[in-house]
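Tokenised fold entry reproduced for everyone:
>
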Amino acid sequence: MKYLAIVTIAVSAALTGSAPKPIVQPTDRSASKINLTILYTASAQGQIRSCNCTKFRFGGYGREATLVKSIREKADNLVLFEGGDAIEWTGFQSDLKAEVTARALKLIGYDAMIPGEDEIGKQGKRYVELLEQGPVRIICANFHKDGGDKLTYLPYVVVTTKGKLKVGIIGLISPSVGRAFQQAEFASSVSDPKDALKAVLGEVRKKADFVVVVYHGPFDEANKLVDEGIGLIVATHRTSREILFPDNNSETNEVTVPIEKRASTFLANAETSTNWSLGRIDLELDSNRRVKSAAHKLFYLDRRYEEDPDMVKVYDEYNTKVKDAVLTASAKFKKDMEDMLKKRGINLEQIRTRLRKSPFVTANKCKECHKEIYEIWSKSRHAKAMETLKKTKQEFDPECISCHATGVVVRNGFTNMLETPELANVQCEACHGPAEKHVASPAKGFGKADEHSCRSCHTDERNPDFDYAQKWAKIMH
């Protein structure tokens, strides 16, 4: 019996009726050895771009696009899929980020997406609808959106590679994960993945040379899907918060991660997270399309990869929308407040004068008494922190400015670059607190700052190689 490695991607793939049957040409079996490269991402969690603040900051679709393009040039047989949970659910920027994600998947050229609960339905939104319009083929063999037996998405796709290898990708989602969107507001249900797999596996094996199953669920559940006709199963729902990083002293950005074998099927747990890395599984197939060897690595998206120019244009459009939203919200808030005060018969000019009074005096005022300390600060990266954001047009991004300006979370502190440009950059008061009272009555002991102050911005996530003692030595005062 011919062995077909079936890549079953646990996903929700769009199905408007019965799944169309792809036209498949006979595969040339003369080659004694074939190399197949599987690329994947999962659990990006809305991290569309690296903030570029630090030397070792990872991630972003711009860098990923550049890496994938270089891999495609060398690989005859390659497939790329998104394993779900690419979307973020906090902050007003979630909708805008979802649009960027949809455009990125199309630009990079994903072959399929297995959506997770973050796409299918959460907090009253269904971001998967952005993807249903065509940016990427959505597949899932066991998701029913309308409460009936009819599948919402295609159960699988067959991808023909540049080398003419036909790779079947089957998408599945875990019922345990699916509970998040099995709510009345979404009228959805998730059927048993083993039953769904059994229903389509034979059909896919007839059409494909190799079968991959992508399972948006825990790895221990994926183990139960092992079948003779499946070459690779990838579990794409992370249950661990542990993230593997390249060694700080290593010259490579690669990390080797486990891949296991059960009977004739290989199993891998997706180890990508927060869009920092691209997963890569390299398979060597024999003439019967059985896996002879397998290797699993993460390629961390660091600064050795330039951002793809087309993706940068997408980022620029996103930043413009963020800026417009920030300024519109600020103007609306002020107008609503003034309208309320007018109704109460309060003198607006008096209120404006009082509300505009800031407790921050800026570094220029601190310089009058602390000239030497000011000189140390002025030569540091803190003094130019906002310039880092301006280079990538992110100076209005609420997710960025908190660590690039002074008094962002304090009343009458930094608002935005149009209204409070004097408080841009990480000035003295960003660490030591508002100095208005200190200037009026100078005294020792004002504004104590320590390692905790630094680590509010230099977190393990943003700055994994941060060495407090080393950095403090450069700005000691």
Summary: The chain is about 30% helix and 15% strand. Residues 309-343 form the longest helix (35 residues).
